[in-house]
Structure formats: structure tokens, C-alpha cells
Amino acid sequence: MSDDKVSSNAAIDAALRLDGDPDKVRAYYDDWAQNYNLDISDAEYSGPAITARLLQQNLADTAAELLDAACGTGLVGVELHALGYRTIDGFDLSDSMVEQARVSGVYRQLAGGIDIMHAPQTYAPGGYAAVLAVGVFTLGHVPPEALTVLLQLVRPGGLLVMSTRTHYYDQTGFQQLVDALIADQQIELIKLLREAPYNKDGAGHYWVFRKSG
After folding, report:
1. Predicted confidence band of residue 5 (pLDDT cuts 50, 70, 90)
2. Which pTM value belongs to this model?
3. Are the C-beta atoms of 137 and 146 separated by less than 8 Å?
4. 10-45 burial, b for 16+ CB within 10 Å, e for fewer?
5. Which of 2, 12, 95, 183 is 20 to 30 Å from 102 by CA-CA measure?
6. What is the pLDDT of residue 53?
7. Which of these CATH numbers, 3.40.50.1820, 3.20.20.70, 3.40.50.300, 3.40.50.150, describes 10-211?
8. Residue 54 pLDDT more than 90?
9. What confidence tens digit (pLDDT) does each residue in 153-164 have?
10. Distance from the first to the final alpha carbon of the chain
């Protein structure tokens, strides 16, 4: 990545410059946990609200079991709870972020210290009606292949609802992976919002996939 700032917020900009190494990402978010919500609020972060509404448009059953992947401080869970969903689990790489999420009181179960790329070692295959991943597919965090890992946790016919930052989408092979999964009939693209609000520094794409089966 160039030295040009990606975000006007110093903490967010630094997060986008992580190299995806789980130990570095964990340490960074452990340190950031106390101030994360304030920084994100200042950045006018709309990703959790938009993603939760996309789920609501495609999953009416508010008793469905949901998994908030890389849940951070629980912003997505709070939005889901406000829409009536009550069976929400979450995990994150950072224990400190999970402790912040626990304060929200909206999760059934929370777990820290879990790397997305190894999440199937903790969660049963096909265990959830929907998996959400917001603020995850962004520079410095996970490779596009994390999409295939998260799909393992979705039941056949279930949903994966997620965001991608535009600069992540432009600089990775995310679209190529999506095209391959669709061609292989592993997923169906139900909804795509392109160049939608993400935060005051830029836009994002929002995706709703249905797992085949």
C-alpha cells in the first residue's frame, strides 16, 4: 500500500495497514478496543446498520441462529437485536474486543481468540441460518478465501451477508473468487449494493449470498 492515507482517522488508517498476520491484528485490536466505538462513531460507520437491514430483507425468521463473524465490539449484534433477532453468536480474534461486545448484552454466546481462517475448528459445519461479516473484508485483515471458510458455517440454503471496502475489492481477487463459486454452483448472489455508504472516508459494497443445497 502506498503512504497515502486511506482514512482521515489515524487509528482506522493504521488498521488498514496491517499485513493480515493474525498476531499483529490481534495485538492491534486488543489495544484499540477501549476507543474503537468512539473512533468508528466519529468516522460515521454505517456498515453494521446496512448489513443488518439486508439480512432482515432476506430472513424474516427472527428466531434463526445467526453468527457475527469477527464481531468486534458488537455493533452488528446491536443492530440485529434492534430488528428483533435474539439468537446471535459472535466471535473475534481479539479477546478485548469481545469483552466490549459482551457489555452489549445482545449475544447468546461470544468467543475470543478465534481466527476466521480456522473458525470451522470451533463451529460446526452448516450450523447457522446466516453468517454476517462486516468490516472484515478490508485491507490488512483477511484474504478473499475467508469467504469460502465462512460459507462452511452456513447451512445449505442459508445466507452469508457481508461487506467489502471498495479499496479491498479493487486490490484483491475477491470478485474472481465470487465468480468461481457461482460458476461452481456453490453460492447464489441474491443482492449486491455497489458503492453504498460505508463511512465518511469512502464507500463499500454489500453482498447477500445464498449457499447452495
Report:
1. low
2. 0.93
3. yes
4. ebbeebbebeeebeebbebbbebbeebeebbeebeb
5. 12
6. 98
7. 3.40.50.150
8. yes
9. 999 999 999 999
10. 39
Q: From its phi and psi, is residue 165 left (phi > 0), alpha (psi between -120 and 50) or beta?
A: beta
CB-based contact 68:55 (threshold 8 Å): no
User: What's the whole-number mean pLDDT along residues 51-75?
Assistant: 98
Work out whether strand 128-137 and strand 66-69 pair parallel, antiparallel, or are unpaired: parallel
Mean pLDDT, residues 157-182: 97
The owner of cell 437485536 is: 81
- Strands 128-137 and 154-165 come out as parallel
Burial of residue 144 (CB within 10 Å: 0-12, 13-18, 19+) is middle
pLDDT over 70 percentage in the chain: 96
DSSP states of 171-199: HSSHHHHHHHHHHTTSEEEEEEEEEEEEE
Nine-digit cell string for 67: 453468527
